[in-house]
Amino acid sequence: MQLILCLASVVGGILLAGITLKAMYLAEKPHGTMKLYEFIVFGGLFMLILAQIPSFHSLRHLNLVSLILCLVYSACTTASSIYIGHSSRAPQRDYSIPGSGKDQLFGIFTAISIIGTTYGSGIIPEIQATVAPPVKGKMFKGLCLCYVVVISTFFSVAIAGYWAFGNQAQSNILSNFFASDGSVLVPKSLYMMINFFCIVQIFAVSVVYLQPNNEVLEQLLADPKKHQYSPRNVIPRIISRSLVVAFSTLIAAMIPFFGDLTALIGAFAILPMDFIIPAVMYNITFRPSERKAIYWVNMVIIIVFSGLTVLGCISSVRQISLDAKSYKLFANL
């Protein structure tokens, strides 16, 4: 499930990179004719280059840049949403929940899955923290830092974006920065800068999520008796990584429903790994008495999130099928 999650995150990253590149293109040429899948291919090609970075350790400088840009990008996006909300060109805001009762119900489970994916970002420091002792201390510090960044960035963007655009807020809030005539609602230089920061952040995150799959493939294909950079190991590495990125790019171009894809990732992988599996492992490892509250708290978590996982998968697949009726493969969203 971790490997599926990582691969799906790479697909989502390449897709979001393509969406961001197209947004920058439309800001310069509002009536441009290039299609979304073309920008997804451009994103995939750049990802193909970054995918050749050898290991997690090689990404440490890129990750630092990613963290800084995440903070800057979120601050700029929040400020831009507030600016648009107070401007004379601000769109009409409607905070009602659209759709019928059935659509709203399924929308709740889809939203829970998306939230699970968003705040499941801590899975990377969790995995890294188990590599070397002391596990508990390192994991706690890593998660504290992770969630400080998550809360300061995601919450500010979500609140400001929803305040500015209401129920018209899209899964990529930067898509709301365009007026009905195709012009940008913020200074163009600021909009291009935000998108540039976003693209760098996307690629940095995607390369991180690509590494676990690379490790698995290279354990199968590499010869440990040969040097890491010998032709015997470099050639299979380049081929395997290129094929993974090419496959991810193809899926991103074929099914460009970013919000729906995020929901499916969350329902299928994040909810079980972040909520169900830890509770199960705790009960199995420490065997608390059935008379203790911790045992029943874990059981409630297991039951509730098992139900949310099933319902989240159903609702996200349903939403993808509904969108598929409106859009064809390789749709130009």
UniProtKB/TrEMBL annotation:
GO biological process, one term: amino acid transport
Residue stretches spanning the membrane: 36-53, 65-85, 105-124, 144-165, 190-210, 238-258, 264-282, 294-317
Protein name (record): Amino acid transporter transmembrane domain-containing protein
Keywords: Amino-acid transport, Membrane, Transmembrane, Transmembrane helix, Transport
Main localization (coarse): membrane
Record localization: Membrane
Keyword field contains Chaperone: no
